[in-house]
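debug: dumping io for the single-chain case to check the tokenizer round-trip. Nothing else runs in this session.
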Amino acid sequence: MTLLTADQITAADDRSWEDVTVPEWNGTVRVLALSGTDRNAYQASLVVLGPNGSVQRMNLADQSARLLAKSLVGEDFQRLFTDRDVKALGAKNGAVLHRLFEVAQRLSALRKEDVEAKAGNSGAAPSGASTTD
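debug: decoded output
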């Protein structure tokens, strides 16, 4: 087995997308799987930490619009909405947002069943030499 190099990993085109027809908007949108950085930022936006660093409460306000702002892209795969556009996006039809939210969740493995499947499928790590920098 040949191990990948850092250049090969960063050059790999590994993000999936799905074009979704939205009749209510008279067109089609492209939903792109989140990058690791965007996924972490989205997940972090869902919690409010208390003064001691523990989770104080969940922040579900505009949850769908926050995810979609990071996931909806144009033909050039550039985001259509910035984080500042979340309120405007959140004002759109809730049923449409929910449908697109479900696609974005699935593509980025954010659904409960995706997390559970990964946890259930993770076996023991193979033993071998380990190095750290």
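debug: round-trip ok. The beta strands are 17-22, 27-32, 47-49, 55-58, 72-73.
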